[in-house]
Hydrolase
Amino acid sequence: MPSKWSGAAVDPGGGKPTPGDWQPVEVPGRPAAFAGEDRVAYRTVFDDPRDPDDDLGLLELRGCYAAAEVWLNDELVAEPDAVFDPVRVPFEPEAENELVVECRAPEDRFGGIHDTDRVPAERSVPGIWWGVDVTGQPDPFVVDVDLRPRVTDDGASIDAAVEVYAGESLDDRLTLTTKPAGDRRGRGMMDRASVTAGAGERAAVEKSIDVRDPSLWWPRGMGRQHRYEVRAKLGDGARTSATGIATVQKTDAGGLRVNGEDVPVRGVALTDAAVADAERAVEVNANLVRAHAHPLSEAMYDACDEAGLLVWQDLPLTGPGVFDIARGQDLAQRLVDTYAHHPSLAALSVHDEPTDTFAERVGSGLVDRLRFRYRVWRSDYDRGAAEAVAEAVPDGVAVYPVVGEPGTDPDAAALYPGWDYGGVDDLDWVRERYDLDGAVGEFGAGSLPEGVDPDADDFDPAGFDRAKHDAVVGSDDPAASQAYQAELARGIAERLRTDGVSGSDATGGSSGSEGRERTDGAPVVVANALRDAGDAGMGVYARDGTPKDAVESLAAAFEPVQAFLVGASAGECDVIVANDAPESIAGTVTWEAGAESSEVDVTVDAGARAVVDTIDVPRSASSVELSVRVGETSVENTYRL
């Protein structure tokens, strides 16, 4: 990769940018010096990248936001029009080569979350965000290996599309070797395909590779993350790509079914994703990440493949307003085509938060509920455009056309009791009144990290609603702020996972779950967000990755096997066990409240929730401690009263 870059803000004008004043910058990156600029040009000069055995060069750019023109040695060689659109340009290097890339801010509605005030301006700078590589190559060479796995009646197939570049005319055979990823000793399966190309041409070779008795890729907690590598070799050059075999369907209830098995989804939304966020998602016991109105990088998808995290990918479209349907259809198709080789890609949504019904918070009294209903009634949203785009999404990906507030008839609801309106106790009536018993794509509350002063001159409020925060927290104390967020995140997550159970559902006794009322809970539960984009926000981690109090509470609420206390207070309360494991569990639930304690043997089916006991919490108790033990594993859950 070229080591020295310079950048400059430029005006529209056509042709290769030639600003008079360049300044040093880091690429890939988002130079803060150009925050707020609509057009930024980047320039580097690099030597011939070829080794003695090389004949040609290959330029690769990843993450040009939001569109770009690429000039190599004074020639316009590429014009990507989406940040996920990769650039691969074969070329014949000179002794010294000049590369100039002009990146432009969004000029339509598809700039996504980076085209809003929920992300700091310095994180939305037009630039080369993900990577640049310049390498020497033989002639001919493999430019790209694109893979599309699919399950068949006989096992599985991997459809490989191999792009080849030839400096001189070519008539040869391409060798494809397929084997399990990480298998260094195995020889793998070999296939061959003919390839012809004229001098200076790119040729596409398509080959279907049969995989007998395939090992499937599973989400974390459901099985192993098996993957396959396909190596395409032509002459002296080769290129390898990886994929995994998995099927994804959307259930009638709005959930996800992977490889024929329903997967209870515990997810977190990513506001401005970094690769390290995959590890953070695992820390809070998530099995899905939602790319909130922005595409993820290839590196992030690779991390999700490895960690077993499903990816719910949004189109870069958020907020009220009309949009170009044809442009949306094109982006939806290309987005899936770009990332289809990743087994983690599970779902796609089109229009995020199309209304702003609760720009100002609504309280929780009787009059406030009337005000809530009036706002929803007048919100007025037409789903037609989003549904038209959704119809263009290729098969194999679950589709949620609309993620929105009550009143938008959403496919996945954005629910913010305790933040936009009311409190945690308002969740049930909102979901019931507006028929929102399916997937939940967003919930949560904002908070202040330690050491942040929201009144400071340099405080960046991106993604943080100060008015709502002050209304529900009543303090600028980070400890109080984080305590409120932690309690709300836990309360909403627990209620969604135990959806439909109340004290009247319990049958009493202590002989286990047999004969008791069961509930499946919300099929998809996604907390917003994993990490702050600005100095404060909806993240359970701060901008720099420092955990807030809500990390621990969300992780407890998202434990795959967990015991919950419904309506934790003095008096009779139901104990519910949620089992997100792929197999039924048999174990023991123990509870302790003040001087009272007991235990009950439980059996809960895979993917089920069961009321396993009803306990009488003494008024003198200050807390209730629950523990569910299965085999040698024990998980605890503590409620402060």
The radius of gyration is 27 Å. Residues 260-558 form a domain with the TIM Barrel fold (CATH 3.20.20.80). The chain is about 15% helix and 40% strand. Residues 501-519 have pLDDT under 50 and may be disordered.
